[in-house]
Amino acid sequence: MENLNPDNIVIPFRVSARTARLIGRENVATSKGAIIELVKNAYDADSKVCIVYFDNKYSSILNEIDEEHFNGLLNLGVSEEQLNIVYKRNDEGDYIIDAELEEEKKLAFKNIISEFSALYIIDFGEGMTQNIIREHWMTIGTDNKANDIFTKNGRVKSGAKGIGRFALDKLGGRCEMTTIFNSNPNVHNPDTDINGELTNFTGYNWLVNWEDFEGDFKTIDKVGAILKGLKSNSIKEELLKKIPEIDLSKIESEKEFKFGTILKITNLRDNWEDYFVEQVFNDLEVLVPPKEVGDFEIFLFSSLIKSKYGEVLGSVCDDFDYKLVAIADDNQNVQIKIFRNEYAVELIPNDFFEREAMQKPNYQKSDFIKGYWEKSITFSELLKGYKDIDVDNTFNNIGLFRFSFYFLKRQSNSIDTKKFFTRGFMSNNRKDWLNKFGGVKLVRDNFRVRPYGEVNNVAFDWLGLGSRKTQSPASVAKKEGGYKVEPDNVAGAVNISRLTNVDFEDKSSREGLQENKTFRIFTLLLTQIIAEFEKDRAYIAREMSDYDDIKYGPERDREKAEKLKNEILAKSRAKKEASANNPTPLSDNNSQETESEKEKEILASELDRKEEEIEKLKEEQKMLRALASSGIVLASFSHDLSKLNDMLAIRTDRLRNLLVDKIIESDYDNTEDRKNPFKLIERIKLQDVKIQNWLNFSLGATRKDKRTRRQLSFKPYFTNYKNDWLTVLNEKGIDYDLSEVEEVNMRVFEIDLDSIFNNLLVNSIDAFIISKENRPRQIKVKINQNTKNLVIDYIDNGPGLSKDITEPEKIFEPLFTTRRNLYTGEEEGTGLGMWLIKSIVNENDGNIQLLYPEVGFGLRITFPIKYNK
After folding, report:
1. Which pLDDT tens digit goes with each residue over 416-438?
2. pTM of this structure
3. Residue 254 three-state SS
């Protein structure tokens, strides 16, 4: 290795003192976030308790104060003259704020008393030795928590970035830390000073002024904190010196108060009047998990109103319509348990459970009485098709998690209550609870990861449930399906851990996780788990709605109307025939009855006409369906099309003729094709022909004659069909075998056949593209006829249905797709192709069933023989 030039010198990096502000005051988004970071430090110190204490008694301008409060301000140094400007004494001896006090004087007084406020964060954990203060607390970005994951008592440490202590700068200009450490050798190594000598201190007082970090050209190594040794008996002794009035009797889980740390923050940057303290208390209720999650309690007190606050308890949801619990293991299996609490089972008639649809597992009366059902499913079954395209094995990076999900209706009405047999609830209570605790939270090692699921925050709906609902706004009982839950009606928590979800890294701002590929796929898995609840609720609602329609609703009325219409029209026709055979005028006695009969006949005829209009609308629907099918085709092969030009057929010939007038073609005989203009023109001409073929195919898809039901011969139809697709088939290397298409006729809309086979071919091509098998690509269409049916078999030798599809018949449901984006995992297919095929077959009284060839995908369509006439 060559020696470096002796003139070269190494220049070390220098860190500006402003760095403390950048990673503290300017990096931590809110004061609420800063408080949470410091509470996490208490948890990581193995404390059972954390106290957030606002000493704001003398820092707020109150409308009325007593003499004790007045004298307290005097003792703090506020002049009596200044107090008399703001307050006037009444006859009862109290002091009332001057109603005519000018805003300028009020602001001046507020600035004076704001200096008396302080914020304390207190824990009773293991405390800190001098060595820990020097090596860890005073080291920016220390990795001790990242490498030493567990606390002495086995907790998983919530911090990892090593910048949490700079949250202090977000809260105030000065901080004083008092810490008494546990000298037990199982907790701390012996306390040593900067020279490695043993000390006889039991704790330390640490003081920093964050304003010292300001100034031009000041580097961070020039700024320090003051450290003073203490010989105190307990942290309780130090705490009572600072806050004599604090009441520790409410803290039952901690008795000794021997060790721990007190952070006192002054020169506060925020106004902590009671209104804002109450907001912090409410936020902490939402930000911390329920008490039963772990052995860690949080208390909040305020010196201004001593009796108002106390222990911060996370909320437990016990009034819900549905609850889902999903537990994922390290083998990518998910155990899902769904609790139904929406229905008043005792009110559901027995004959509802006798319906054929309610004989399925999990939907029988015994399942409703039990109140829940369970299923096991894999990641790849939840995100069907993604594993086939993911070369990075992203599923392996997700790890274990637990997902608790709650659905709560905000309101109901008497009609729905009767129709869906739902139980009653207090809507106002639910609204209040959801407004405060709603949203799906992300919890890591017993602490919320902000701001996911936070009310009134842009990340409230981080799972995108609102977007799903907008794209599919179907009601829960819609027969075609498509129900999606609203984000305002849900709550829940996703529990992860630093130990098992190592790919989920914090942002430096501590506001959320880094949104890498693993995190995006994880969110999609969660929405697919939610879809299991949606399918269950929608299935029951559809059956209840159908049951109500048949027993009470418009279904029965329509049947009666149809029957009555047919009877009236039959009588009318019979009467006309009788009148033609015996034209005797009616008597006056029957005139009124005849008039009534005529009105009935008019109504029946109008109903008949409406039915004809509906049939015409159905015909239009067929055209729209074909257009949708063409849209799928064009979208799938849009990369094969470029800018269109009316002169596609002749533009290359014109260009060639212009060149021939100027240059001689033979001059390029020995030139590479890529540099030969004539060869390039030929290549462009071939591309133009390809574009023309595509245009001819797409523009001919909805030809008028295809929208007319006529006798169609399959052999010439498929010959033309194959020619239309020949360019694509050749390009993709696909053999489209029609050798077993018999000479069979069928009376059918040609556009319906186009929709069926275009969608099948598009799916086959997509399957061939993602296939990992290297074999010739083949599609075979077989058509034959027996005494009862015309049978069409469609088979390809692609990869077949994804093994993740456990219920193959679901491919015929609308919006079902396994086509996904490789990087985001999001669905890319429309999910309409197979649904369109099934709809067309059903409309023609046919039947469709999946075939299971040894290799590939197969489908059999049968039409009754009547359609060949």
Report:
1. 898 999 998 888 989 988 988 89
2. 0.65
3. coil
